[in-house]
Structure formats: structure tokens, C-alpha cells
Amino acid sequence: MTRLKEKINEALSSVLPITLIVLLLSATITPMPLGTILLFLAGAVLLIIGMGLFSLGADMAMQPVGEGIGKTIVSFQKPIYRIVITFLIGAFVTIAEPDLTVLAHQVPAIPDMTLILTVAAGVGLFLVVALLRIRWQIDLKYLLIGFYALIFLLVCFSMDSFVAVAFDSGGVTTGPITVPFLMAMGTGMASLSRSQEEEDNFGMVALCSIGPIMAVLLLGIVYHPQDAAYTPFAIIEAETTQDIVRAFVVELPAYAKEVSLALLPIVVFFLAFQLFSRRFSRKHMIRICVGALYTFAGLVLFLTGVNIGFMPAGSFIGQALASLSWNWVLIPAGMIMGFFIVRAEPAVHVLNRQVEEITSGTIPGKAVLYSLCIGVSLSLGIAMTRILTGVHILYFIIPGYVLALVLSFFVPGVFTGIAFDSGGVASGPLTATFLLPMAMGACEAVGGNILTDAFGIVAMVAMTPLLTIQLLGLLMSVRNRRMQTERDDLPDVIVEFEEEEDE
């Protein structure tokens, strides 16, 4: 129970800032219907409990399973076994990712399952690339340069409406299921690699964020949807407490079924893996099964709270802010939300702890945290500016990634891995569940194109940490060189000790 309380407190710290901001806005410049605000608050409660249960389940099941599978895969003698198993686990984990499900529900141009399976294939393929990188000791920055060059080439041939969605897909796939699992899997693989360099522990999430972008861009080349009409979020009429309860209870079984189908491939794969490898003891298996139940219950509550309470409220606030005569307030509002959301994001704290552990404290977790906060705050400001002006996302994405890749040649390799992993981690659950609906509502209010203007907000959130973390690495490198130079310039002092004569 103590662990569960800790996880619920973490979830509370994650959800509370955005809840307080919404209440402040609703009490001042964007008054909301009473039913909508009550549904939002009820959704926030479900979100907190769901995230707490899920986070505990991830610690008990996802992380040990991920690390165990990572170690087992590396030990296989036949490369084909390593490749097939790595691809399957990457695809299955992605299908179960709740952030991807939330994004798929909001994309009008592509059927949900088409987008989910496309993204899953991309993650699975690039998880294989990550495995081969660790095995063959390939420098991460050269892979990133090559693949992002290919991405920008594909942009030229893909449908314009797919571009922003593709980059958003890269952000949401590194969510509450995939991040702990893939990071643990990467640690397991790196622990058995030949060099065991610090950089080997990072970069797994970075590479797996590339796969969905490429996969969706390829989908945009071969798939041409007939109907891409946007359906606004329905505002549920709730006049009594009974209406509030009914709104959630009615939808709960549907989300339970959805989560069951999403988790089933992972469960089947794990049972088959355990049957052949005998990796985990009976005690560990019981713990993993209990963790899986926590994960299931947490995801059901999470998705129910998000879809019924959070997303309609986000859309309403976006519409209300963008409808004001002084709609520029949307920009600072987004920046403030971005700063506090990422500061409270549980996955960010997981990354910070891993950074401090692996680097033995040489890279402070607080420095990484505030670099992420600043980066995400700037990204939300840019995203809201795009909605008001209609500037295409490529005018920000291309220079941003080019600068990030150039910086990789001037900072230690470990910072490049941390930076590109941070991009995926920063775009957590609240980005897809609240900020994206808010952007869509604002875009609808100003008469913009939903697919090209509103989508891309997750991509911006995922991009700016690449710059701020590497700039942090550059500053630390300059400081360390300066301190080393000062130490070298110090004169050598020889201290002579006189021996006392025995009386």
C-alpha cells in the first residue's frame, strides 16, 4: 500500500497543475458549463488513480520483464531469433500504448487500427535497429542523421495532411507503457554489450521515435483517405451527480474491452517467452501477474477519465481562448501549461533518476528537468503561434532537427542519447489527452486546418528538448574544460617535512 500511495502522489503532482490552471481559466476568462467542469474534475480523479495504479504495475511488471527480455535477446546465438523477438515485442508494446490510442481516436484522416498497426510496425522495426546499434557499437548520432535525412526526403512525397500526424506519432508512442519497458530493455541489452559505455543505455527511445514518423509518412504516400472530416468533441450534458456517474459507468466496459485487446498480445508473448526461456522464478511470476492486473485497471481508469472528462474540457478551453478578441493569450497560456506539465510528468522523473544513476551523479537530474521544462514551454508557445498564424510545421521542425543533429558533434555522446530520449519522454500522457484537444479546439475557432495546424503539437514538445538538453551538455563540457585548464595552470607546490630528532 505504501508503494501505491507514492505512485498516486506522483500522479497527483502530475495532474494537479493542469487542473488548477483549468479551474483558474474557467473562473476568469473562459467560463465553462457546470456539467463540463464537473466531468473534468471527475476525470481528473480517475486519471490520478489510473496513473497511480498503472505506474505501480509498470514497476512490478513492465520494467523487470523489459530488462529480462533485453538480457535474454542479447544472449541468443542466432541473429534471426534476436531480430524476430525484438520486432514482435516492440510492436506489441506499442499496440498497448494508451497515448497512441488517444491520438488515433483524434485523427480524422486515418482509421484507428490502420494508424495503430502502422505505428507499431515502425516501432518494432526501429527497436531492431536499436538492438543492432548496441550489438555493433554504432555511434548514435550517425544513425540519427541518416534516418532524419530519409524522413525529410519522405516528407516531399507524403500527403501534406499526414506530415504533422507522422511527427506526433513519434512523440505519443514513447508513452507510459513503452518508456519504462524500452528503457529497461535497453539497459538489459547494454549490460551484456561488449563496451558497456554510458551512451549504450540511452538512445533506445530516440530510435523508436523515428520508426512511427517514417511509417506514417510512407502510409501517406500509399494511402489516400476519402473522408477526412473533423468531428468536434461532444460536450456531455450533465445536470446532476447521477448524470456525471452515468457518463463514466456507461463507457467503462468499452474501454475495459479496448485495454484487454491491447494488452493481450503482450501477455501471450510474455507467457510464450517464459515457457521457453524460464527466465523468471515462481515468485517473480506472481509479482509480474499482480503488476499486470494493476496495469490493466490503471489503463481502464486512465482512458475513461481522459475521454469523458479531460479531452472535451481541453477542446472547450482552446475554443474559448482562440475566440477572444485578444486571442494571443493562447500563447502564454500554452507556455505556462507546458512548463508545469513536464515538470510534474512521472516519466520525466524516471529518466532523471536513470541519468543520475548511470552517470554516477555527474549529470544532475535537476539540470535535465529544468532544461526539459524550458524546452517544452517554448514548444507550446510555438505550437500556439502556429495555430494563430497557420505557419507550416516544417518551418520549425526542419531547422530544429538540423540544429539538434549539428549539436550532437559538439557534445558528449551520452548527452545526445539523453536529449533524443527526453524528446519522447517529455511528450507524456497529458500532451495527447489535454494539450492536443486544446490545440484542436483553438484551431477550429480560428478556422484553421486541423490536420496541418493543430496536429504537430506533440512533435514540437518532442523536438525542443533535443536542443535544450544538448545545450546543457555543451555548457557543462565548456565548464569542465575551463575547470581542467585552471587546474593545469596551478603551480606545483612541494611541501617538505622536517623529521624531528629523537631526544
Write up what this structure looks like.
There is one protein chain. By secondary structure, the chain is an all-alpha fold. The protein has one domain (about 1-475). It is built from 19 helices and no strands. It is globular, with a radius of gyration of 24 Å.
Question: Which descriptors would you attach to this protein?
Answer:
mainly alpha; 503 residues; 79% helix; 19 helices; globular
Q: Report helical residue fraction.
A: over 70%
Structural class determined from secondary elements: mainly alpha
Overall morphology? globular
What number of domains? 1
What is the number of beta strands?
A: 0
Mean pLDDT equals 81
Helical stretch count? 19
Radius of gyration: 24 Å
What is the percentage of strand-forming residues?
A: under 5%
H/E element string? HHHHHHHHHHHHHHHHHHH
Major sheet attributes: none
Ends apart, CA distance between termini: 71 Å
Q: Could you name the ranges where pLDDT drops below 50 across 5 or more consecutive residues?
A: none
Write the layout of secondary structure elements.
Layout: H1 2-27, H2 34-75, H3 79-95, H4 98-106, H5 112-136, H6 140-155, H7 160-172, H8 178-191, H9 204-222, H10 241-277, H11 282-322, H12 330-343, H13 346-358, H14 365-389, H15 394-407, H16 413-426, H17 429-446, H18 450-454, H19 457-489
Quick take:
This protein is mainly alpha-helical and 503 residues long. It has one domain.
